[in-house]
TrEMBL record:
<protein>
    <recommendedName>
        <fullName>N-terminal domain-containing protein</fullName>
    </recommendedName>
</protein>
<feature type="compositionally biased region" description="Basic and acidic residues">
    <location>
        <begin position="260"/>
        <end position="279"/>
    </location>
</feature>
<feature type="region of interest" description="Disordered">
    <location>
        <begin position="252"/>
        <end position="279"/>
    </location>
</feature>
Amino acid sequence: MPIDKTTGEIKKWENSNNKERLQNIHSNHKYEVAITCKQKKQFWQQKRSKAEIDKAIPYNGVTGKPYTKGVSLVIQCHAINNGFEKNPVYLTLNQAMAVSPNAEVKKAVDRNGKPIISELSNKEQRVRGIKVSYMAHPKIPKKNDKGEIITNPHTQKPIMIEDLTRPKMLETITLYHASQFENLDMNMLRGKDLSSLEQEREFFRNSFKEPSTQYIESLGLNPNTQREMKAYLMAQSKGRDFAPVIDYNKNTSQEVSQENTKEQTKVKQPKQKEVSRVM
């Protein structure tokens, strides 16, 4: 989170502006990519067919729709980092509760199976999902005709609605893998439906426009990682097979080295012939 320049303390989310909020989200997503790199599981360095790419695309378990564009790759990193890549189905807590009213996010445990206690709240932590951003008006509690706050019967928390009189702010919502929920009826979830993505792919194939890779560029990644991920995203967005990007600098240095070796050989050969004549 950003630091308040006047107090030197970490700014609360509600006190942060859109730019500061976006920086925080980018930092979290960059961290997710870094974990994948540290584990040496960079899928953007692997040759994949279109079918393999489609299988790895994360999707929403309630709508069946895939998560696309740059954030799709970040969610794929989260899936790989946590061993969810075989079936990357994600949904929000509210969606899980709509499917199964008793669903809740699992508690985090350590290697010994003991609950992990948060140092800030002194409460048991929940497993870590992946946050995604969206623009929305600030929310306020919903009230009935009598002016009383309406609460959710399952959570007993106020039902929040957007205040359309105030400007939109960047907000986040946490996605969890289906296996990160307790009491979730998996049979109620939908399968992956890529029909909307196929329509986008058809559009790009028949137009001069290119899929946006701006989000990947905004994360502040290593130049090589950024270039490789952008290439993978282009293949995913267009529905093509993928071959890893070759490191131009590395190959160029190898080619130069090979050419130098050839030149050295050419120089040495005449000398050897001249020596043989003398002998």
